[in-house]
Amino acid sequence: MKGKLFLVALFFFLVFGGLCFPVLERGPEAATAAAGKYLQQVIEGAKREKQVIFGFALEDREADALFAPFLKRYPFLKLDYRSVSGLEERERILAETKAGVYEWDALYINPEIVPRFKEAGVLMGSVRWSELGIDKKFVAPDGFSVVVGGAAYGIAYNPKLVPAARVPKKWEDCLDPYWKGKMLVDVRPRPFAPLYLYWGEKRALDYARKLAANGPVWTRGQGPLTRLGAGEFAIFCGVYYNNAMTLKEKGGDVEFVFAAPVSARTWATIYVFKGAKHPNSALLLASFLATEGQKLMDAGHRGSPLFPGSELYKLVQGKEGKVAEWELFGTEPMIVKKIVEAYGFPKAIAK
Fold it and tell me: What is the value of pTM for the model shown?
């Protein structure tokens, strides 16, 4: 009898006893509350810091479109934006930070030099980006950075020189002997990196060899696109969408084709320095750029192709091809090296 009474008592304790203890928060509501608390902590920290020093390579119209809404959202902050371009300048910044001199709070760092910054231990890692409202697809797998823009590649042509029947539609059109001597190709094949992932190595390198054999006029960088717009060349195979659109808006005779299959990617990784003087303000800026800023980058035609509503998102959705997310971060130098080798290590002629 005593055994039965004990079992009954134990049953009631297990079923109802929990009501006597506080219930732990669970589920999405608790996660949202925790995220909101962290964001508020960052905001309060930024209020004490009062400013943020940020390095990026933006056009004036992009800077205006991005920073005015950010400062309106956080009016207690002063933004010190400085244009930083090229690997040489980032090499200098790396040397300074390794010596303990932290001039910057946040910086756009080119993918090819990121490993060296990581090895130096100067970057803030494993940031709680999700608690700042950032979609995980815009957060680096290692948690160090967020991506804040995008790039799409295709073929530009001069409509005064290219008959309607000759307008290229796919990448293979660049292999037509008709374009020999009339076509620009960049010796730095970044526009073909997403296609390398989509086609696979064998097909991508075969294409590179055939492209080189078609007698292009080699260029280094996108600058000679202006010569196409002025009528010196007919097409540019492997051009940045934003560069073509910018030239067109300035009156250049240029049109852009999203050659099939689509080649696009996320672009511009923002890192916060471990020794930043204004770390909370830097986190606020990075989180703004990785959310609302993705769409505002449309001002320079560099909004993310993964951000719903952005210009590039609308243009590439539903098309066959590759929109690279984080696959190229870390692998692109190797891919570029292989394509350049397939080209035959050409030297730039057009400048």
Answer: 0.86
